[in-house]
Amino acid sequence: MRKLYIFDTTLRDGEQSLGITLNVKEKLAIGRQLVKLGVDIIEAGFPASSPGDFESVKTIAKELKGVTICGLTRAVQKDIDVCAEALKEAERPRIHTGIAVSPVHMAKKLNKTPQEVIETAVRAVKHAKKYVHDVEFYAEDASRSERDFLVDIITKVIDAGATVVNIPDTVGYSTPWQYGDLIAHLVNNVRNIDRAIISIHCHNDLGMATANSLAGIRAGASQLEGTINGIGERAGNTSLEEVIMAIYSQKALYGVDVNINTREIAATSRLVSRITGVAVPNHKAIVGANAFMHASGIHQDGVLKQRDTYEIIDPEVVGFPRSMIVLSARSGRHALKYRLEELGYNNIEDSLDEIYARFLNLADLKGEVFDEDLHALMGNAGKEVNGMSIKQLSVTSHGAANAAATITLEVNGELYSDAACGDGPVDALFKAVDRIVGKPVQLEDFALKSVSRGSEAMGDATVKIRYKNSLVVGRGVSTDIFEASALAYVNALSKTRYLD
Ligand SMILES: [Zn+2]
Predict the structure, then answer these.
(1) CA 43 – ligand 1 centroid, Å
(2) What pTM was computed for the model?
């Protein structure tokens, strides 16, 4: 199997579409997470475009090791000089230079003849080669270029020293068979192609970036470019996580190996979304909130009997908690029993029919049925979660970064109280709970939304914690947002006992 190199351009192609500029700290945080994810190349920016971008690329080149750091340039000497300067401290620097190759771009944008374009490209590659060994050439708008011309320019830039040749579908115009055919054409007709890696770079204007990328890989490309969550110009870039998981799911079909730590995909997606402010749609493949959520009763039943009946990917493989099931009137007995057992209600087999009938009444009234509703349904209206209940809590806060919380928990019939300070009231609360429970967990995610049910606005908190390398999710609902948060945290903590 040949290796497929993963080239992330979230910080360059992704960022340029945002309308805001990420600062050095933000870019570095994303870069660090990309290293954890295991990408091979990080395109950190376009250094000649602004002093800020120069600084970002320079800092990333200096700080991030074990990964190739790439900077973008036009086929202009000054750009290349600036880029080389920014990459000076990189362990593995790469200059990404190039020029447009389609008739419309050459005539209308560049105002150059094809011959002049070839000369400019060769000159740029040779100039970049003076600074670094690793030079990638991009043939902008390659999917709308003339094939003979594309073969000619690619042959010449490889002769000039290009180590990677990028064949972008810049405008998202291709369909999978066209794009695969284009890559195959280069594999078969560029005489020195064995001296370079073919890279693919697709855009999603027709919703085909993932499909086109897979077609390119099957046809022989060995580098995939894209972004996390598919952010990018217009309809976006290829979503790296989609292509990676497509290959993961059917490896034999593509004949490539990918060195990605898939368990970091969810965390990377969340970080990029949080820092860029670009929300991930709930239905987004792989990383959407509903990507592993089962709502239909038949599906829930199937997944609980055998996960792969309705799941092609184990959610934990991409860093999500295992199968999330939404309890509603569409849920079957099996799903209800499963959740009740998770909440600590065992030996309910005999009364299940009767409980299920009451559950359906409740679900008809409410839509989604939460854990606290199930406690109520089971005649346990308190705030009890798996042998732990919250007896009292209070928080005080002076500004966002300075808060204190006290909490009293009843654990297996005994009362425990403790207090802690934190960055904000929720952090303080969680720390106070930690002091009582004392389990080595790591908080991975916390989300609070308001749900309106009847006349009362409720806080609905979701907490994800990591314990012994597994993700555990907890949920809490209350009219008091701090109580909802604490309930969610205690709920997650109480579930970790299944992992002990
Ligand atoms: Zn692009």
Answers:
(1) 11
(2) 0.73
